[in-house]
């Protein structure tokens, strides 16, 4: 590869879409971002407009290349990373979505999950997919779309014909990686980490599972082909007559949390990272061993390179962390997320206040779909500074819950944790996390590790980077944080946090 070539990464997240261009050193040379709208048609429902996401994707690619004066032909490859589990169906002929994408946070299929539990399907799903049955995953979202979605956006559609057309192969299913790759290349594919999050894919046999497809009435005809995360054969190329005007291989993809694991160079068993975004996602590489969790964690696929065995991970999925900061802004307790550190430092403690941000239920290791956001311990002396600090502390406590579960399943004591995501720019939060978890927190220089992981996957596939060792050499530390408080104090506060979590559980019951 010549010196003036680069690798681009599309990072399609819950709140927006980013395109980042990286050089051989893994340094950012161009970066553009656009937010998209969030739709909440009913309580607990969350949707995105797939066409808005695709339009924004084209815009950020064009903007980033233009600002850096980089020609599309200088891109050696494009990688894709995406919000996982978010699900959509589209018309195979026109490429038009039949309905909005149903977002991973969406809870509309909670009752369907409870039916699965009542029918004794939980263990089978866990054994095949490594997942805890939950409305979070794609299977019940796809089932709902086939049964309930009003196909107002699908040409020639009638409300009763979605399933018929799906059976005939006229409807395509995908998570957001599939949607973007389809629009970039015309190919209907997904990659193995995203497939592993659908609750339809057997992570041991590495194939769509017939029993699960039957359980959720998903026609096999709508499913994408599953490919490696870093694919030497590539997923396809961009259209030279399309918006880029160049034929660029799309050669790598990873679900966002696996992409961050890859971007943090967690290539060896025991390597772990936590990404602080809308939610937080704690992953530990377990190598070629799909470790079954006894502590409420998920077993998932970490990545796969062409011609190599799948690598697995344990994952703790925390639904709301960064979104809790957004909530503080929504309710006017802060004007800007940058205020949180100063406000939290202005008080010595939360004065006994605990915030449990279970706005969309509790994820790992608690798994309570009907938990809801809770504030406990308030007195007449409680001020917004206490609530802000308690909200930051909730991020750290939820991470400790997962870290303890991770240690229990893996038998590996956590001494160092790599962190990334927007929230880790907050030094107060990083120090707080180190204090609460009782281990070193390591923040890298390049904190856009999700996009970096997708770029690495694509670049390895086309020999832009030679091997994993070259990627390790790119990784550099920005700052390390060490615990500063007495471990006994941290333990006492965490025990009180667990009491607060119990208050939040089972709150969202159906009205009689």
Structural Rg: 22 Å
**Hey, roughly how much beta strand do the residues contain?**
15-25%
Total of helices? 16
Which oligomeric form is depicted?
single chain
Are there runs of 5+ residues with pLDDT below 50, and where? 152-157
Shape: globular
Strand order of the largest sheet: 17-18-16-15-21-22-23
Organism: Natrialba swarupiae
EC number: 2.7.1.30
Binding site for ADP: 14, 18, 278, 322, 422, 426
Binding site for ATP: 14-15, 278, 322, 422
Describe this structure in words.
With about 500 residues, the protein is an alpha+beta fold. It has 16 helices and 23 strands. The strands form 7 sheets. The protein has a 7-stranded mixed beta sheet with strand order 17-18-16-15-21-22-23. Strands 3-2-1-5-14-13 form a 6-stranded mixed beta sheet, sandwiched between helices. Strands 4-7 form a two-stranded antiparallel sheet. Helix 13 links the parallel strand 21 (about 415-420) and strand 22 (about 440-445). The chain is globular and about 65 Å long. The protein starts with 5 loop residues before the first strand and ends in an 8-residue tail after the last helix. Mean pLDDT is about 90; it is low at about 150-155.
């Amino acid at each position: 590869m010549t010196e003036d070539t680069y690798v681009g990464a599309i990072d399609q997240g819950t709140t927006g879409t980013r395109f980042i261009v990286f050089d051989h050193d893994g340094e950012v040379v161009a970066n553009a971002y656009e937010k998209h709208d969030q739709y909440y048609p009913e309580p607990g429902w969350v949707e995105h407009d797939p066409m808005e996401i695709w339009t924004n994707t084209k815009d950020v690619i064009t903007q980033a290349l233009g600002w850096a004066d980089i020609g599309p032909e200088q891109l050696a490859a494009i990688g894709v990373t995406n919000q996982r589990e978010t699900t959509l169906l589209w018309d195979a002929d026109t490429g038009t979505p039949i309905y909005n994408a149903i977002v991973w946070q969406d809870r509309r299929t909670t009752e369907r999950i409870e039916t699965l539990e009542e029918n004794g399907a939980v263990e089978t799903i866990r054994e095949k997919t490594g997942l805890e049955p939950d409305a979070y995953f794609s299977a019940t979202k796809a089932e709902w779309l086939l049964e309930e979605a009003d196909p107002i956006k699908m040409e020639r559609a009638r409300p009763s014909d979605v399933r018929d057309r799906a059976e005939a192969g006229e409807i395509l299913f995908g998570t957001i990686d599939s949607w973007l790759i389809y629009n970039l290349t015309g190919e209907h594919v997904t990659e193995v980490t995203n497939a592993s999050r659908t609750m339809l894919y057997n992570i041991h046999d590495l194939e769509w599972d017939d029993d699960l497809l039957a359980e959720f009435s998903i026609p096999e005809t709508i499913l994408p082909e599953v490919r490696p995360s870093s694919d030497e054969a590539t997923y396809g190329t961009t259209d030279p007559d399309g918006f880029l005007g160049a034929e660029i291989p799309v050669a790598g993809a990873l679900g966002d949390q696996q992409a961050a694991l890859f971007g943090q160079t967690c290539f060896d068993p025991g390597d772990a990272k936590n990404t602080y975004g809308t939610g937080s996602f704690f992953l530990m590489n377990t190598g070629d061993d799909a470790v079954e969790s006894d502590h409420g964690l998920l077993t998932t696929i970490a990545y796969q390179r062409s011609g190599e065995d799948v690598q697995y991970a344990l994952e703790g999925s925390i639904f709301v962390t960064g979104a809790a900061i957004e909530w503080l802004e929504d309710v006017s307790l802060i004007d800007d997320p940058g205020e949180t550190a100063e406000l939290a430092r202005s008080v010595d403690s939360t004065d006994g206040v605990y915030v449990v941000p279970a706005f969309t239920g509790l994820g790992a290791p608690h798994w309570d779909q009907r938990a809801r956001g809770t504030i406990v311990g308030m007195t007449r002396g409680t001020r917004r500074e206490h609530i802000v600090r308690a909200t930051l502390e909730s991020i750290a406590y939820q991470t400790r819950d997962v870290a303890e579960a991770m240690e229990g399943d893996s038998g590996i004591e956590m001494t160092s944790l790599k962190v990334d995501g927007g929230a880790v720019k907050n030094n107060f939060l990083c120090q707080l996390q180190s204090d609460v978890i009782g281990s070193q927190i390591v923040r890298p220089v390049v904190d856009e590790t999700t996009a970096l992981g997708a770029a690495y996957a694509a670049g390895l596939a086309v020999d832009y980077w030679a091997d994993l060792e070259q990627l390790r050499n790119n990784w550099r530390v920005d700052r390390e944080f060490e615990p500063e408080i007495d471990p006994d104090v941290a333990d006492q506060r965490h025990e009180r946090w667990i009491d607060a979590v119990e208050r939040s559980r089972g709150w969202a019951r159906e009205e009689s």
